[in-house]
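Our consortium's second objective concerns turning raw sequence data into structural hypotheses that experimental partners can test. To show how far this objective has progressed, the report includes one record in full. It was chosen at random from the queue rather than selected for favorable results. The single chain below, 289 residues long, was entered without modification.
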Amino acid sequence: MKRIVSILLLVSLFVLLLAPLAEATSYPTYGYTRVKTTVRKDPKPKGKKVVDLKADSEVEVNKMEIGEDGEVWYKITTSKDKEGYIIGTDLSVVDNDRDDEASSAVYSEELYLDKYFSCEDYQGLGKKYTWNCEINGKPVAGKHPRTPIGADTEFTIYTRATNTGKSKATGEAMSLFTPSYEDVLNGFAVQQKLTAVYKDKEVEWVITYTFLPEGVKKAPVTYEVDNIASFETGTSAATNNVVAGSNSQTAVAAATPAGNTWTCLNGHTGNLETWLYCPFCGTPKPTVN
């Protein structure tokens, strides 16, 4: 009997170890090429060329595989029904599952997104870069795009930098972040670090993604997130550190002058003048005529 129990425990442990390798995305889905790339017959760098695709080409993504080079590859179908593989770094894959989880979360909002790129030392490689920015695999471009964010629901952040000067320095960063209920209510910012490399030189960038509800101009809290190796292999996010501010109910209330109270339509009252939504039930702050 003890031996059976031991075997069951070992099997359970084995399953737990394999669990992080489960794919986060359900296939088929769709994606976009981040750069000009080559579709190959097999998932390997020197596989036979099927066709070349321009940047921003939409493809159907059928599955993910780990190639013989140890890299992530996607089996895809082009708009002209040509099939083959694209290396993972060249393709943004829309994660519909994460989007659905965000939209169906207990509390969810479509938040406005701002991006800010900063660098202290360009290493003589120039200041001009093009940027590919994605949330849950969807490119986020333009001014103040909106993206669904759910409380206690993990989402992915991807950034790719390409120097447009002579150096052609490139780099990418991938991170995971799970906002709290207060984050979605009040807004938040996430700082991600990216290293662009050219020969023996490295340029360090900090990218700040700011998520804000309508009517909020500044995020009350900023987090710093570590990079991960791959979304697809389910690598856990490292601990997210608060760089500045706070979004906890206690901290917001403490920072508010006494007497600045309001009552929501459901009867909740508190010292919450800085909140735009009731932290107890999520109803909007009443407007004062």
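The partners drew two points from this record. Confidence is low (pLDDT under 50) at residues 2-23, 234-238, 249-258. The CA atoms of residues 253 and 272 lie 6 Å apart. Both points have been shared with the crystallography group to help prioritize constructs.
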